[in-house]
Queue: 4 jobs
Job 1
Amino acid sequence: AAGAYAFTGPAPVALRHGRAGALSQRLSMAATIPKVPFSGVSPTGPSGPTLPAPGEDLEFLEAKPYWDQSGVQVNIAKQKNPLIGKIISVQRIVGPNSPGETCNIIIDHQGKLPYWEGQSYGVVPPGIDPKKNKPYGVRLYSIASTRYGDDKTGKTTTLCVRRATYWCPELKAEDPAKKGVCSNYLCDSKPGDEISLTGPSGKVMLMPEDDPNMTYIMVATGTGIAPFRSFLRRLFGEGNPAGKNFKGLAWLFLGVANKDSLLYDEEFQVYLRQNPDKMRLDYALSREGPLNKKGGKMYIQDKVEEYADEVFDALDKGAHIYFCGLKGMMPGIQDMLRGVCESKGLNFEEYLEGLKKKGQWHVEVY
Ligand code: FAD
């Protein structure tokens, strides 16, 4: 099994799924994938999707009406007075052939740091920053669970953290003296460890739930999956009112290095199988192929470009598009969109400005 985050079912059978071709997809999957019990019992362990039990009502953390974002809070806890949470679990969620390590980290916040899907937490690593001779500053992490937490108590938060390492070109090896402070602290933490939290922060990545017919286009690289894992769980993995009313489309594009680096794929396959008309899932595996149409590595922008007509059509009809992951993803994305605009006789700057003005463009990169 790939890493500690092992799925008891078989591996995904294809890397492209969704509405188009959904029937053949379903037919080919039906033969190989056993039915996942719809019992509220997680098929993937403590951090896996706990699908809604029949008739489940998860409402105790909803606004009234549930889409009213006027009460969304930020900065309940600040660095000077952080909330002391407790680590519940740390699980490596990538396979052995993934370059680098990514962990799923569940934290108990005792219900004292409530958040909405799309927000982030801050983590204050312990110790003194030798460069500044004062305590280390806050690092932000996008929240990967819904407001209810993976255990649905409303008291936990899940983070998806990649261990930052430094590859020294002279040593031709990792230099432990230069490894990232907070990501290593988090990935090395143990159940029961106390952790200083700030936040929640950010409102740019919230979901416009007032329209149950919304199309969400989510574009992630690596740990940029975190907010979208939260979105998909909100839409398909719980009995909350937004999920129950959802009649739109959630379309995820995820770019990673190879199959072993896919994140939360087991859950996404469950959602996809149970909501074939409301979800699409497309992966770009840059180091593994297939190649892009120019014969080069398949990066996230190449995968989105394959569906440019459908994406532009959806945006014309009011879809919201979200980007999350490393900063380096945006130039490629923007160049691709510029090219598509030119081929359609559109002015890219005006087009982008229009999306921003209408609140359809959401970016959180780091
Ligand atoms: P730092 O100690 O801050 O070091 C930064 C980098 O410098 C590391 O790569 C380190 O290896 C390198 N370095 C250290 N010393 C040297 C040196 N002497 N010479 C050269 N290089 C050196 N990250 C996630 O993993 N998941 C998320 O969901 C996530 N969400 C985010 C959301 C937002 C809104 C933002 C702003 C950031 C997010 N991040 C996320 C990034 C995260 O906040 C941290 O920046 C990241 O974990 C690195 O922090 P660190 O303390 O480990 O590294």
Note: Residues 1-46 have pLDDT under 50 and may be disordered.
Job 2
Amino acid sequence: MEQDLTTERSGTFSNRPDAGSHSDKKVFVKTYGCQMNVYDSQRMADALAADGYRPTDVIEEADLVLLNTCHIREKAAEKVYSELGRIRVLKDERAKRGRETVIGVAGCVAQAEGREILRRAPVVDLVIGPQTYHRLPSVVTRARSGEKIVETEYAIEDKFEHLPAPARSTVRNRGVTAFLTVQEGCDKFCTFCVVPYTRGAEVSRPVSQVVAEAERLAEAGVREVTLLGQNVNAWHGEGPDGKEWGLGRLLFRLAEIPGLDRLRYTTSHPRDMDDELIAAHRDLRTLMPYLHLPVQAGSDRILKAMNRKHTGADYLRLIERIRAARPDIAMSGDFIVGFPGETDEDFEDTMRIVRDVNYAQAFSFKYSPRPGTPGADMEAQVPDVVKDERLQRLQALLSEQQRAFAQSLVGSDIDLLLEKPGRQAGQLVGRSPWLQPVVVDESAGAIGDIIRVRVTQAGSHSLFCEPVREAGLMEAARGDSV
Ligand code: 5AD
Ligand code: SF4
């Protein structure tokens, strides 16, 4: 399942127009939820750019407002409706100034609720599900002529073949790291999860499409690509050799692309970690030593009720094999507390598995019954106060592990990809191999450089580092000063 950061982002694509664009139509996209939505928002912006829409970060000046929504937990879905309330005021104000504003809801809430959105929020003009984003420009044109549109059918055509590639300058503006969706949907049907209903059945993009997109990104200066999929390690496709490839083989191929120095992928299911993928972790230095592998719970009884199709022991054995192949790998996970029927003892099993694995990073959530999923109809729903208490204990343990991992790096040298200016003047930020934000002085290098740095301090969310000068250079520097 996709790692969900429950964040909201607006303008995650560049707000700088491509040179040569002469349109004055503007689109504001707000992205909720996971990285797949971030990727989708960019592709929607690309499709609209071809139709003359320039992205903006200022909602008041947008002729088209798109909310790319998340349905994974109730809270995430409700946020959309409160945002639509605010947008209604904005649309009225613009109308008074004679400006038309088209309001669209995309993403998983659109797919799950469809026409219901128009009923609850009449301000909305168009509802479009994730499978039909390539039709967005024509849908927007129809909406502008006053039609209310719900486009949530699964398209027969391949949307990726119809979505335009971003201009080179757009890729460059978006930075030196990029997402690349290789797989969508899920056939696993975990009993708590809406994804199989909102994103549909598992579909993999063909090898040639993925390689071509990765090459285009690298040519435009991207140095790190994160492959995305709700079940990314279930990706499979026919290779140019006529054989069936899995994600491991694909990673070996992508590692050959000049300029792509860092590869990541997320999110994986324990049942799809095959030998070749583990071998990729062993053999590829470009594959970052970080793995997001959700277990969700530690109790076998609960795992069974969740339809996870693995036990706690299976998961621990798997991690042992991965660590044997790549000893410096850092583990990340997702956890749900308070799934129906979870007893204190079951919850202690979750705490135990967390202690056994020792996570560098993790995301944990209170179980949220989602309409239409089997979990929502199960008996023995756990009271909210119990969920709260369990979540607090779990998060305290996970934060302690995360802090200890960061602390263990102090004094060591790591590779850092410089991504963008920091919040404070004079700083640059990037990511460690283990995905931690890293702060260095701007004199350390230029955006896009991968530099060697020494960790001097571990803060609560970031590492602070100083550049390590090569031994030879240090000698020279010392010589100079004498
Ligand atoms: N309630 C709480 N958490 C959920 N997740 C998915 N569905 C639910 C739900 N109904 C969590 C899982 C998943 C992550 C993205 O969100 O841990 O891995
Ligand atoms: Fe992940 Fe399970 Fe949801 Fe599929 S059903 S996306 S495997 S949590």
Note: The chain has three domains: 25-151, 159-408, 413-481.
Job 3
Amino acid sequence: MTPALETLLTTDLHEAARFIQRGELVAFPTETVYGLGADVFNESAIGKVFAAKGRPSDNPLIAHVSHQDQIKQLAADIPDDAQKMIDAFFPAPLTLVLPKHDRVPLLASAGLQTIGVRMPRHDLAREFITACGTPLVAPSANLSGSPSPTTWQAVAADLLGRIACILQGVQTEVGLESTVVDCTGDAPVVLRTGGVTLEQLQAIVPATRKADATDLHQPKSPGLKYRHYAPHATVVMVSEMNELKGNEHAAWIGLHAPRSSDWHLIKQCADVAEYAHELFAFFRACDAQGIKAIYCEAVAEQDLGVALMDRIRRAAHR
Ligand code: TXA
Ligand code: MG
């Protein structure tokens, strides 16, 4: 066992950046979820990311930039379709998988010759990366297997004593992880749905398509084979509310209020954006209260609803 680290909590991005420069790990906010950052060119720091999260070493990391110029340090080539998406969307909740530059350690890409690149839309995230003076690898800042953190308190619950620093920010805006698009084949392929929708991508590159079963096999999208985003409670997706009854050990989240009020916890969201924003925080709140089952209302699979339904299905799948 490595001894527990003292984890500094700070709102000072320059203080946090000094940890990155010393090869340590810093969790920081983005518009999707909090990321666990390390210098993309420091192999020993990248090793600490996998250790702190308990992450399988075959699951590649996303590299985060604050300026478009930095993409050239990470990618050996920027295919035309990728450049169009960069021009149209960056900074955005969007990750583009590109051919990897030799300078990026293979540890970051889990041995793949490709690297995911993202420029976060959240100002504090970009200011922090700029202060670090280097792109940062950053997976979601949770223990492997638990829901992605949308607050600094959720990061602390998972990683206190395991990382050097948490840069404290607000609850993340989108609440679900970025859309991941593989730009290394003939046509762009959406490997993970997220804040940027298939329709928005197709408006820029019409050939962009959904992943099919073969795309989702190794080595295209290693992370998707792991059971993600799951609270300890059982998650049940509800498409038909009529017969549904609550109980003191169950919680409800959705766009409508459940008929009966005998639930331990009820979260009614005004729209799909609020539902996405709240989902992972709700999962964690339910676990903290020892709730046994979380009922999640199904939503229409359009726009952000596609990514929201994906995350609920993954959490419900045992
Ligand atoms: O919104 C996000 O993307 C957040 C914030 C912190 O930016 N990060 C995040 O990272 O969700 P992570 O590591 O939890 O999820 C990254 C996903 C995994 O499913 C991984 O397999 C996939 O992206 N991925 C990363 N690099 C890849 C690559 N080169 N080829 C295919 N899939 C890749
Ligand atoms: Mg993750």
Note: The longest strand covers residues 94-99.
Job 4
Amino acid sequence: MNHGARNVAILGSTGSVGCSALDVVRSFPESLNVVALTAHGRLQELVEQAQEFAPRFVVASDPKAAQNFAWQGLPPEVELFVGPESIECVAAHQDVDVVVTAIVGSAGLRGTWAALEAGKTIALANKETLVVAGSLAMALAERHRATILPVDSEHNAVFQAMEAGRREDVQRVILTASGGPFLRHSLTDLQEIQVAEALSHPTWSMGPKITVDSATMMNKALEIIEARWLFGLQPNQIDVAIHPQSIVHSLVEFSDGSVLAQMSPPDMKLPIQYALSYPERWDGPARRMDFSELIELSFEPPDEERFPALQIGHEVAAAGGTSGAVVNAANEAAVASFLSGQMRFTDIVPTCRTILNHHDFDPDPTLEELLILDAWAREEVTRWVCT
Ligand code: NAD
Ligand code: MG
């Protein structure tokens, strides 16, 4: 173990963000030390990661997958835990300084929660935690003096730009959106979208769920809600601008009209690195902007008629309460149905809208109530698909 290095747990280490986080560790072996890795599937990759990074613990969160897997390759000095509760144990472990939450969906909530309760520094990729329970999570962070550093590239950019001024002088945040693969599609074209098309993003390489979310623009809706809680903004302080080049990762407008942006070529390794190095900046392998070439940056307003998800994002950010948990779960289930060929692309967002409008809204729910509504919304989607 390196003395003075930051001890890191990566929840969801076999995913897109998880693998990028390990790339960052690979670049800074003196400064970062992996203590724990967790994965739900792709267990062979988890074993290979354990061989390379020699963590103290690995967690296989899906007991069935763990049971069916031959673990001989796992180095004997690495301790194996099985089951979702073990994610919470490693997230809260006393030897862990920073927890990278890179599990996809509301399944990531319990690990993030345990890290918050243990007062850890959290490099937050799992935006769904804040969408489902942003108000409760931020209060928990304050109570336990946990620090949340955003990994989501837009929020990481906002976080960086905000450091240039005083919080009370922030007037507006403008989240940029690439617009996804269907930015120029007509409503008719959108109805014919097949899974493979939705999984091919023009500027980012990501896991399947967030890639579909980017195509429907539900990802930006989730990010509006994430920004509302993370930065304590009023919902009307958050705007979205389409920026197809994905170079300006977001902008902050201050009260005097100055707008500050953070720019870099699109690569998740940079926001992950900043969350792991903060408040330091480390000279790493991130690709640099090349100003010897023509760089064109464009911004345009989003078309909320073709992408009605954005309206949901603004509404849910304003309503708070149970609405985030419901829309998030409905979206997760709808995306899963689309990926398995049971739902049309253009039905994902209307499904979320209907379930959101029909739920029993509570402005001040407990975590237990939110989890019950999460399950309810998923069942509603299943009922829709089956009828
Ligand atoms: P992914 O699908 O590539 O990886 C998900 C990881 O979570 C895997 O390690 C998987 O084993 C684990 N996992 C899946 N289901 C689980 C469950 N039920 N319980 C425990 N672990 C489970 O996802 P991703 O694209 O890396 O995204 C991870 C999170 O980061 C998401 O919340 C996403 O919104 C956010 N994010 C991702 C990107 C990106 O570039 N991929 C960018 C910004 C934010
Ligand atoms: Mg993002």
Note: The pocket of magnesium ion (ligand 2) is lined by residues 152-154, 223 (CB under 6 Å).
